[in-house]
Amino acid sequence: MLDEKDRIAVVQQFGRTYRTFMTAFQACVGLPLLQWRILLMLRDLSSAQPQKTLVETLDVDAGALTRQLQQMEQKGWLTRSIDERDNRLTNVALAEKGRQKINEATPLRDAFLADATDTLSEDRLCLMEETMTLFEARIKEVAARCRIAS
């Protein structure tokens, strides 16, 4: 049975693995994972989306998303505009340069993921995905209780 020290070690390893993945993804694919996710979402939705929708769908902090969108807009990958019906909303749309970036980065992403997972069996990958999903759900449950208590 795991004691407190062992549980802390597991969570610390999870953090190290996540940071290593993020750094390697950016080095191999050429853009941060969040920017990749934003580009894909905009491509898949095929129309301008309220920035609030991106925050909710991508499950990211609004301020962090705004910073990423500003950088991406400067690169010409997307456009942001005030909603014509509700000037409180900012709409985000994929620009042609953003579509080109996705097309350039997709083979790099695919190669990175294949290389990163090629020594792991399908069973291990499935177990890892299942475990991380359960862990995420549990963390959200605990966080919800913490917000209630404070």
From TrEMBL:
- Where do the HTH marR-type domain residues begin and end? 1-141
Membrane-spanning segments: none
Task: Identify one Pfam family in the record.
Answer: MarR
Gene3D superfamilies (alphabetical): Winged helix-like DNA-binding domain superfamily/Winged helix DNA-binding domain
Keywords from the UniProt entry: DNA-binding, Transcription, Transcription regulation
Show the SMART domains listed in the entry: HTH_MARR
Question: Which PANTHER family does this entry report, sorted A to Z?
Answer: TRANSCRIPTIONAL REGULATOR, MARR, TRANSCRIPTIONAL REPRESSOR OF EMRAB OPERON
Protein name (Swiss-Prot/TrEMBL): MarR family transcriptional regulator
Which species expresses this protein natively?
Robbsia betulipollinis
Q: What is the lineage of its organism?
A: Bacteria, Pseudomonadati, Pseudomonadota, Betaproteobacteria, Burkholderiales
